[in-house]
Each structure stands twice: as structure tokens, then as C-alpha cells.
Queue: 3 jobs
Job 1
Amino acid sequence: MTTILHLARRADWDAALASGSYRVSTRGATLDQVGFIHASYPHQLAAVAELVYADDTAELCVLVLDREALLAAGTPVRDEDGGGGTAYPHVYGPIDPAFVTDVRTAGFDAEGRFSF
């Protein structure tokens, strides 16, 4: 299993569990607005979190996604340049909660470092 991660607000994830579909691309933007859901590989997530969510006071969580399960269900996942030549996984469709293998609590310490 190739693991990809998506940083989410806990409230958005809870809403997805109720509706059966997660459709948030990134902070403040939906799948419909952006065209894909931003994701990261484990070594990329802290930098993304610190750039995008450092000043967000909402409770955060990390969705652990099974890339192969997404692909098998017909949801494209493409590694694309996220800036500076670094490839990030982009999920081109809604995420069914069944493809989330774990949900981890996430946040920032007093020095602003991200952990999950």
C-alpha cells in the first residue's frame, strides 16, 4: 500500500463521515473549486501544514489514504508539480471514507512545529 496523506479540519472530516464523501481540496477550497484534493507523502506533510495551516485555530486531523484503493475504485491520483519541481499527489475526485485507513490527530506545538 502506498500511503498518501491529506491534512483536514476535523469538522470537515466529520461532515464527510455523515455525508459519505469528502470533498475539501485544501483550507478554504473545495474539490469543485480546485478540481482535485491536495495530498502529500509523509515526508512532505509538515512543510505543507506549516505553510497552509499554521494560523488556523480549527482542530486538525490527518487522513491516511490508500492510494491503490483509490485507483482501483476509479479515482485518479496523479503526482504533479506543486511548485519548485516537487511532485505532490493530487486526488481527482471525492474521497470515500472507506479509503481512509486511519485518522490521526494533528496540530502545532508551542514553537509552531507540526506533528501528527
Job 2
Amino acid sequence: MVYRSLIVHGQALIAAVQFLTRIPVPVQVPFEPKQLSRSIIYFPAAGAIVGAAAAICYGMLGFFMPALPAAVIVLAVWTAMSGGLHLDGWMDTADGVLSHRSRERMLEIMKDSRVGAMGVIAAVLLLLFKFAVLSELIELGLESGAWRKPMALIAITPVWSRWWMSAAIVGWPSARKGEGIGAMFGTAGPVQMAAGFLLAAALTLVFSFAGGIPFETAILWCAGAAFITTATGLIGAVWLNRKLGGLTGDTYGAMNEAVEAVLILAALLLLK
């Protein structure tokens, strides 16, 4: 029974990594609704892999490269780890909801593989924002010589943004009834979302300890990240749900990007 449970959850973890990252995991797992719904528990783990890669890149480049080109490379690695999947959702969502069309037309626009002007503008502004924050974080590291704390904060950021995706999947209906991401994760519920939250909290503590953060401060970091994530995500989800009558795969990606942007800004302000 225990062995069977380990196999099932191992497959769910692999499914989460395969779904949310571009890391080649040479294992076949059944991409069925039940398995995918279980995989949302491990969305924060997939985020941890992305965050660890970005943090390591940040720490390595900061020692020998000026802040601006280093920030570009860190951002490129960060985006490439997910294959631009969530950035694509950000652009599609901007094209749709900022078109000021009917709900049905917005959903049609978001489904279109072509990117419009609003999507391009939204992507440029988002990437510029992340680049500016990362360059400031690298400057802080150069000035102070302290790299572990910002590395930990960078690593934590994708953990919570991926957890919010699971919360959005569970908390709001699909805008496209019976199709798309909503249908794939249709059996996911509060239990999986809560388990994912606990995993996100545990990973936050692990990264905090790796960054040399005392336990009491790590707990405060965890609470702050959870609060900022939930507040940002709620604003986005409520607004998008009102616009579209539900959420889609694109909006999950868009909210992931929004939460990441707010969290790294919060990290910069904390260190400042």
C-alpha cells in the first residue's frame, strides 16, 4: 500500500515538472485528469526547480559580471526554465481582456496563437520590470557582498507563484466548460491545494535556511510570501473571473507572472 502510494505521488511530481517546466524527465506518466489533479500538490516543487536555477545563475554571474547583462541572463534562464509557457499566457490574456470585446470574443482572441499589440506591450513591460528588479538585486549583492539572502528570495518566488496556479484551478470555474486546462484538472480540490500550500511553506523554509536565515525570520518570510501571493492572486482572479466568467490556462499563466513580479519587488524592498 505504501509502495503504491509512493509510486502514485512520484508520478504526480513528475507530471508537475513535465507540465510546468522544460526539464527533460525521461519517464512516461499517465496524463489523465485524476493524475493531473493530484499533480497540483507538486506545483510548488516545479517552481522550486525554476527558482533554484535562477538563484544559482544570479549568484554565479554576480561575482564577475556587471549588473545589467547579468540581470538579462538571469531573466533569460528564469523564462527558459518554463519554456515561456506562462509568459505566453500573460500575452494571450492581455490580448483578450484588454480588447474590451464581449466575453465570447475575448476567449476567442486568447485562443488565437497569434500575438496582438496589447500582448506584445504587456510582455515588454513585464520583462522590463523583472529586469529592473533583478539588476537592482544584483547591485545590492555587489555593494554588500552578501548573496545568500537575495538568492533565497529569488528561489522562493516561483514556489509561491506556482502554488497560486493550483489555488486558482481549485477556486474558480473554467471559462471554457469541459475543455482546456480546467477540464484536465477537473477533479482537483481543496485537499490538493492545501497540501501544495504546506509544500510551498516547507520549501520556503528550506531555501531560507540555505540562505542563512534564522528560523523566526524564515517563518515571517513564509507568512509574508503567502500573504502577498494570496492578495495579488485574488485581485487577478476576481478581475479575470468577472471579465471571462471563469479562468483559463492562459489566465493561470498570467497570474503566475503577476505574482512573480510582485514577489521579487517585495524581495527587493525587503533587502533595501
Job 3
Amino acid sequence: MHASADGRYVAVAVEESNSVTLIDAPSRRQLADIKVEGKNPEHAVFSPDGRWLLVSAEEAEQVDVIDVALRRQVGKIAVGLRPRGIGFSADSQRAYVAAEMVSTVYVIDMATRTAVAAIPAGKNANGIAVHPNGKHVYVSNGADGTVMRIDTATNRVSATIAVGKRPWNMALTPDGAKLYVANGRSASVSVIDTASGSKLKDIPVGELPWGVLIR
């Protein structure tokens, strides 16, 4: 589930129907159920400008592109097998997609709808978080128990940070100072200081944490 930046819409990926449900957030009314090509869609993420939804699926080698205004799929972008986490640059020009089975982060140019770089990550790359300043992207590596920091200017990994077992989805504080990482097999959330690129602490939580929400 993901909300648009303006709070107008919520998008829900529905595995059973291979579709994305678009909801009017203020009224909680369903606006559309949009079919996608990828089987078992998992993430549906709005671009910051609200124009696009990118959808990743467990059984796919692509991310599907939904035009929010038209409320239908209008394209697809080839990536590696089993795309997972998706993050956008603040200007909506770039998207970053973690492909789990090939342990790679793909950089997508939204103007051409093509992958313009493939960045080797750790084993079973999964979650994505984009720093507000646009200089760094973070990827969680499920099998390695690490988070990698990617420099967007060079598309290279500049730091690798050990966290808990099976790190999944992540969230940055609005100022970008801290990154919170859900560790599914450690029943914990790791807190990373982004300035130093180091882990500050682990916070015990319930079993199998999957994601983090910061408000």
C-alpha cells in the first residue's frame, strides 16, 4: 500500500487478481481496479508528481507502468527477475528498483522508460529508500543481512552496513538523518545514522517485521 505525495490517492497491490486498486483517500472510495501484467504484484509506488505508479511483482522481469490519470497500464520496463522495492528521486525523473533474484538495483529513466544502469547489490536485494537530498539510495539485502548505500552521482556502492537478519523494507526520517530498517528474521528494527553510514542501535519488535512507516 502506498499513498500519493499529495494525500489524494492510495494504491494497493492485490496479488490474487494481479491488479492495483486505486482508492480516493479522503472518501475511502475505490476508484479503479487496474490490471497489470506482472504476476503477484507486491509494490505499487507513486512518483512524487503523482503522474505514475510503478508496480513490481514476484513473478516478473519488469515493472509495470500505470498512468494515474488514465487509470490503466501504459507500459512496462525490463529489469531483473523478481523486482521488489521501488523508490523515486524527488523530481520524479529517476526510479530505483531492487530485483531480488539477480541481486541488482536498476536505475530507470522515466522520460524514456528504460533502465539506464544496473548496480550490483548484496544477495537478495529487496527494499529501497531514496534520501531526500537525492545523493544516496539505500538497498536492503535479505540474505546478507546488510544495507548498502549507493551514490547516485556514480551509481556505485559507497558503504555497506550490517543490520539484522532478513532486512526488508525501510523508511527515512523526513530530514534524512536516520534510516529505519525492518529485520524480518531478527524481530528488530535497525536504526542507521545516514551521515556516518553506521548503525546506531537495534530496537526489539514483534515477529517478522516487514516494513516501517514514519509520519
